Amino acid sequence: MIGYGFCGSFCTLSRGFLGMEQLIAEGRAVLPLMSEAVYSTDTRFGRAEDWRARAICRTPGREAA
Questions:
Q1: Which among 20, 21, 32, 61 is least surrounded, fewest beta carbons within 10 Å?
Q2: Is residue 64 part of a domain?
Q3: Number of compact structural domains in the chain
């Protein structure tokens, strides 16, 4: 299992998700990890709710809590 972290560098989150999704496409087990800032802060780069949904929905075997 790979822990894949997202921190408060909001301008790079989209690219970070592409990297995580590539690992998943290669069949790797990935556990998305988010800083409190990414988990709860809406910015011009995206809403926190959307980042959380994308991390959960793109990770096989994970469900929203």
A1: 61
A2: no
A3: 1
